[in-house]
């Protein structure tokens, strides 16, 4: 117990640890280390970002997907998913509504939908750019070619989220069908950064077959890659996927890793994700208190929210909903945090 506490102290001081020490920090974690890391992570985050949380308006613009990830509810093979795609007009009115509410970042997230060619997606990005020149535009639309990423960047996209899902090639193969490639995913992340996007990666906590040494690989990969943003949340099973009977990830380990990530990468933009809010009551607030500094309320039209079901029981109402920003403001103010009205750009250079 003393050994693991010493490691926690060293992590807080040095913002890194050797891999074997990170492994011990994870496998031998206890309430004492968790509390210590949480307080250190939160204090560090406060020194950098203040007691403010950045908000991003999430627009889930299509649930068509050509991929077949074993964990995901909108995988191609799920015949139960009711498919939809938003029109350009619908997307623009989401942004307009969001702008009025105070959002200055819009995240266009969707499955890998071939309907959204470069031409179509660039047109949409350019229109949003025209509509709100002072907003950041984030895309989260999966793997595309280098040329496609460049064209979208030229059209006005500033940021791109593409979780690496796991930094272990063998584990990647157990979460995805043969048609998907670990090397391609990593190449796509390098392309995004090289083009000049503020780039986000991330992984699921407690995904099937994940071990502590794989999490260490994730942490090491992220520390070396230097992402501007990191998205992590618990794996949650979806009834109509091959992983329907797999155990869910826990809030406890997710919160612990949020603290570790904050301490390893002090300036990173780190959301308290919807999955964390779904797995436990007050999960998002706990995420903020553990070192997260971003929340991404849902700005999608009400009629499609239930259709973007990546996992069972995914939240989209209450303070998850962008139109109830007041509820979010209240719940954050209860824990001593305010909402920042700004683009909230990365401080990572
Ligand atoms: N549980 C938790 N997260 C999931 N994602 C996809 N399916 C699930 C699930 N069942 C995450 C993936 C993806 C992001 C958009 O959502 O990490 O990158």
What are the SSEs and their pairings?
Elements: H1 2-14, H2 19-27, H3 31-49, E1 52-55, E2 57-62, H4 88-101, E3 105-110, H5 118-131, E4 136-140, H6 146-155, E5 159-161, H7 169-175, H8 182-195, E6 198-205, H9 212-225, E7 229-234, H10 251-264, H11 274-279, H12 283-289, E8 294-295, H13 302-305, H14 325-334, E9 338-340
Parallel strand pairs: 1-8, 1-9, 2-3, 3-4, 4-5, 5-6, 6-7
This protein binds 5'-deoxyadenosine (5AD).
What can you tell me about this protein's structure?
This protein is of the alpha/beta class. The chain has one domain (50-340): Aldolase class I (TIM Barrel). Helix content is 44%, strand content 12%. It is built from 14 helices and nine strands. It has helices at residues 2-14, 19-27, 31-49, 88-101, 118-131, 146-155, 169-175, 182-195, 212-225, 251-264, 274-279, 283-289, 302-305, 325-334, and strands at residues 52-55, 57-62, 105-110, 136-140, 159-161, 198-205, 229-234, 294-295, 338-340. The protein has a six-stranded parallel β-sheet with strand order 2-3-4-5-6-7. The protein has a three-stranded parallel β-sheet with strand order 8-1-9. The model has no long low-confidence stretch (mean pLDDT 96). 5'-deoxyadenosine is lined by residues 71-72, 163, 165, 204, 233, 235-236, 238, 275, 310-311. Residues 51-273 form the Radical SAM core domain. This is [FeFe] hydrogenase H-cluster radical SAM maturase HydE. Keywords: Iron, Iron-sulfur, Metal-binding, S-adenosyl-L-methionine.
């Amino acid at each position: 117990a003393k050994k693991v506490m010493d490691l926690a102290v060293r992590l807080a001081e040095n913002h890194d640890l050797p891999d074997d020490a990170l492994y011990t920090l994870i496998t031998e974690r206890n309430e004492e280390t968790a509390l210590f890391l949480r307080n250190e992570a939160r204090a560090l985050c406060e020194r950098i970002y203040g007691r403010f949380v950045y908000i991003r308006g999430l627009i889930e613009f299509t649930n068509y997907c050509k991929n077949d990830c074993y964990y995901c509810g909108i995988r191609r093979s799920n015949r139960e998913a009711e498919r939809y795609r938003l029109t350009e007009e619908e997307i623009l009115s989401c942004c307009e509504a969001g702008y009025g509410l105070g959002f200055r970042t819009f995240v266009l997230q969707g499955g890998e939908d071939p309907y959204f060619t470069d031409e179509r997606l660039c047109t949409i990005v350019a229109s949003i750019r025209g509509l709100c020149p002072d907003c950041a535009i984030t895309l989260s639309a999966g793997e595309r070619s280098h040329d496609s990423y460049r064209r979208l960047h030229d059209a006005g996209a500033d940021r791109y989220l593409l979780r690496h899902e796991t930094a272990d090639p063998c584990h990647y193969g157990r979460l995805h069908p043969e048609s998907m490639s670990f090397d391609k995913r990593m190449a796509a992340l390098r392309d995004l950064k090289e083009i000049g996007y503020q780039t986000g990666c991330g992984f699921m906590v407690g995904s099937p077959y994940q071990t502590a040494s794989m999490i260490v690989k994730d942490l090491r990969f992220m520390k070396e890659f230097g992402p501007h943003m990191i998205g992590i949340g618990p794996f949650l099973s979806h009834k109509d996927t091959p992983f329907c009977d797999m155990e869910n990830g826990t809030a406890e380990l997710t919160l612990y890793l949020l603290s570790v990530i904050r301490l390893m990468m002090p300036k990173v933009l780190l959301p308290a994700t919807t999955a964390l809010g779904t797995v436990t009551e007050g999960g998002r607030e706990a995420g903020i208190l553990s070192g997260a500094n971003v929340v991404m309320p849902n700005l999608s039209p009400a009629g499609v929210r239930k259709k973007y079901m990546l996992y069972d029981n995914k939240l989209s109402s209450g303070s998850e909903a962008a139109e109830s920003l007041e509820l979010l403001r209240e719940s954050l103010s209860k824990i001593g945090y305010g909402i920042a009205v700004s683009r909230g750009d990365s401080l990572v250079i």
